[in-house]
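Support request, please re-run this one:
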Amino acid sequence: MSKFSIATWNVNGIRAREQQFSEWVKRDRPDIICLQEIKASPEKVPEPLSKLAGYHCYWHGTGGYSGVALHVRQDAFAVAPTYSHPSFDFETRIVEADLGEFVVASVYVPNGGKDFAAKMRFLEALVAHAKALSQAGKKLILCGDLNVAHTERDVNEKDRKPEVIGQRPEERALFDQLLSENLTDVQRMLYPDRTDLFTWWAPWRNLRQRNIGWRIDYILASQSLAARIKTCPVLVDVGSSDHAPVVAVVE
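Re-run finished. Output below.
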């Protein structure tokens, strides 16, 4: 398998971020693009993006809420991927593409504020799905907004509250289980001691500029793929979403 790049970004509305998304793709040309919270059904995605030039495109949304997308650059992967949705998909929260040697998934985990039990069920199903893929001998790259800050290091010290959804012990325990299914948190592997690495900032009080945020957007990869990744930055300069893209290059 040759070198390729993979990016994940919660755009918080693809129509609101149309120009910013287009400029970023033109600048960086990721080989695989995973999006979350597109907040649009496929027919409502702006025309220049719906068939993104040079990409196999898949938009999975139902309206102004949730929704994911997964685009694969044709020059990097000549054969069109096979797209599918696991049985636990609801509210258009997961799509995956089989690229032959590995499966890539774009995932938007419920935040749990309105229905915490539904969030836990989704995470439990995601763990089971990762286990099934691993047992079938499939490598996996799981990307997206998992809505869990895995450890205390993944939250700015001003926001650390163990009773808050996204930081609760039972959520973090399920994240541990997910990693135990032969997956590696690529950023934490590369930057084990950093406590200033965040991907989401509440959209007030200049928290992004002050870097008071949470790390809840991840690239998790099967261990053999993770070992080939040497860099995984957060692109803080990209876009006006409350999330920033995360990008990894598989050497």
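The helical segments are 18-28, 47-50, 116-135, 169-179, 186-190, 207-210, 223-226. The chain has one domain: 4-250.
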